[in-house]
Amino acid sequence: SKQAFVNGVKGFYYLRAQGKLENENILSIVDFSLPSSKKRLFVIDMENFKVLFNTYVAHGRNSGKEYAVKFSNSPSSFKSSLGFYITKETYTGEHGFSLKLEGEEKGINDNALSRAIVIHCADYVDERFVKSQGYIGRSLGCPALPEKYSKPIIQTIKNGSCFFMFSPNSKYLSHSRLLQSAS
User: Fold this and answer.
1) 102 band by pLDDT with thresholds 50, 70 and 90
2) In the predicted model, what is the mean pLDDT of residues 60-76?
3) According to the 3-state scheme, what is the secondary structure of the chain?
4) pLDDT digits (tens, 9 = 90+) for 1-35
5) 47 close to 156: Cβ distance less than 8 angstroms
6) Among 42, 60, 69, 134, which one has the highest count of C-beta atoms within 10 angstroms of its own C-beta?
7) What distance in Å separates the CA atoms of residue 86 and residue 100, rounded to the nearest whole number?
8) Nearest 5°: CA angle at 78, between 15 and 150?
C-alpha cells in the first residue's frame, strides 16, 4: 500500500540519518494491510529504486488468520510486532539459516531479541497453502519466508538494514515515536 511505502521510507531515512544502518541502501517492508495470500514482503534497493524481492511472509498465529490484525511485544504472545527493526547477524538454528532482528521502537517491538523474533524459512509459507486453505501458515510471531527465497533474501538484508512491519493499526501509528520523529 502507499501508506506502508511512505511510512517505510520515512523511517528508513530517519534511521539512516541517525547512523543506525550499516547496510544502508536496503529497505524491507512487510505490508500487513494485505492478506497472507498476497506477496506482502518487499525488499527494495533504495539506491537504484528497484524491488529486489516480492514474496509471501508469515505473521504470528495469534495475530489473525488471513490478515494480521492483533499485535504484541509480549513474550509468548505468538503475535507479530509492528514497527522498525534493524537486521542483525545470521545464524543456523532450529529453522536453518536465520536472521536476528532488533526492534527499534520502545514498547512496540523492543522485545524482539528476547522473544527470538527472527527471519527464517518455513514450509508453510507457500502458495500450496493459499490454494488449499486461502492463506499461508502462521508462525510464533516471526516473519517467516518461503524456503525458496529465504537464503537469498537473508543474504541481501543481513547486517544492519532497515526492516519495517506495517499495518494501518491506529494504535501503532499514534504511538510510534520513530514515525513521529521522522515526519
Assistant:
1) very high
2) 97
3) CHHHHHHHHHHHHHHHHCCCCCCCCEEEEEECCCCCCCCCEEEEECCCCEEEEEECCCCECCCCCCCCCCECCCCCCCCECCEEEEEEEEEEECCEEEEEEEECCCCCCCCHHHHCCEECECCCCCHHHHHHHCCCCCECCCCCECHHHHHHHHHHHCCCCEEEEECCCHHHHHHCHHHHHHC
4) 999 999 999 999 999 999 999 999 999 999 999 99
5) no
6) 60
7) 9
8) 60
pLDDT at residue 183 is higher than 90: no
- Model's pTM, two decimal places? 0.96
Q: How far apart are CA 148 and CA 157, in angstroms?
A: 16
